[in-house]
Design brief:
about 350 residues, 2 domains
Length: about 350
Amino acid sequence: MRKLLILLLLGSGLWSGYWFAGSSAIQTGAEQWFADAATQGLVAERTALTVQGFPNRFDLTIEGVKLADPTSGIGWQAPAFKVFAMTWKPWHIIAGFPPSQVLTLPDQTLTIDSQDLMASLRTQVSTDLPLAETRIAGTSLNLSSDLGWTLALGDFTVAFRAAPDFGPAGYEFGFDLAPLTPDPGFLAAVKAVSIPDLPPSDLPDGIETLSGSILLTLSAPLDRHMGDTHPHPTRIDIGNLGLVWGALSVTASGAVEADSNGFAAGKITVQITNWDRLPAILVAAGAIKPELAPTVVKGMQALASQSPDLKVLSLPLVLSDGQMSFGPFPLGPAPLMVPPQS
């Protein structure tokens, strides 16, 4: 019994020492980050910085956070920001965001109101710290711009995870962003568009489905050596990308990869069901001028006539020889997937 008590006391002492050493390193590192950012000309302010959670967690709480880059005009501020990890798996870091934050962009300021907004970063247990998964999710998120527009999300998830079946540098990017409610002003603009031979828009106020799964093959793994290896995509496989907005349905699938010159090459097939709802959206979004809408509609009708179902418009996005086209429409140069060598 005495030996057991000694072992328990020794274990508790070692664990306490581990926690206090870890918490001290975290606090020192966080304070040093703010100091380094300030010396680089960035705005990096906080009113308080503490580490708690003994004995099972490292909880870093930063209050009164204000970060900004005066050069780019990008900034972020929040009343508090929390980062924590369990003491027995410090390779899994979780961040908790406050219900309200402010994001400043060069041309506008966004107020972000959310519920249960969390982000996480998990690496594999290895000295190279290879990425296992990063994720952001919440039960609701509302964006309000000082330019007057809004955007609302319901229960959503965005994740980027390792996909070892596709090689050591294979990753999957997945997202589910519906239900999504666009800005009411934009919805009103869509409904106000009048195009000959097309009925008024009957799109509902919310987008029912907006999800996708995209597989990426990179030139090197995402790990602690990224600063030296500079990973970039060499192949992109779109297996499941879809949108459902009332009667309008859009799906996309296909693959592109870098050709011998580093340009994206391949084909992605886009299928639009009930395409006649799309022109009003394009006009309201400013993608096409109202006076050109009848011409665009006639072109879509001609392309849809080649399909067994006149309500379905299927167009290939083709990337070849450094150029790309969408159906019969040329779009210009294809993206460069492989960065130019210095």
